[in-house]
Design a protein that fits this description.
Layout (H helix, E strand, L loop, with lengths): L30 E5 L8 E2 L5 E8 L4 E4 L2 E15 L5 E3 L3 E7 L2 E16 L4
Parallel strand pairs: 1-2
Antiparallel strand pairs: 1-3, 3-8, 4-8, 5-6, 5-7, 5-8
């Protein structure tokens, strides 16, 4: 997957990085794949100190808690899951924007892979 993240400082030259995180993915664990946030160990370092991309692979019935953030973006490339507090299921290809949320729990209905952008500032 390829994504573009705006730097938090103007005047920086564009950068590019890639990483294979397959070995980091453990069923049911939220993994920081890319981050510029201080203190967050991630496979890719971003030029934005307010953003972290988390990835998880869940088996049916597994749950994971998404970190609290002023802005969040959940994307489900594969599978089907529920999100606590929302009376609907997400299916492959669905996305959900969260704002001013405390921690949020998601649960896999079937084998799922999810991406979650935790963002602590607006552009």
């Amino acid at each position: 997957m390829q994504m573009w993240v705006a730097p938090d400082t103007s005047g920086l030259s564009p950068g590019y990085a890639e990483a294979d995180i397959t070995d980091l993915l453990v069923d049911g664990a939220l993994v920081a794949a890319a981050s510029g946030r201080p203190g967050v160990d991630a496979a890719v370092t971003l030029a934005n100190r307010f953003a972290t991309l988390h990835v998880a692979r869940l088996t049916p019935g597994q749950r994971v808690t998404l970190p609290a953030a002023p802005f969040g973006h959940l994307y489900l490339p594969t599978g089907r899951m529920t999100v606590a507090g929302i009376d609907a299921e997400l299916e492959a290809g669905d996305a959900l924007r969260l704002t001013a949320e405390a921690t949020t729990e998601v649960a896999a209905i079937e084998a799922s892979e999810m991406l979650y952008w935790e963002m602590h500032a607006a552009l």
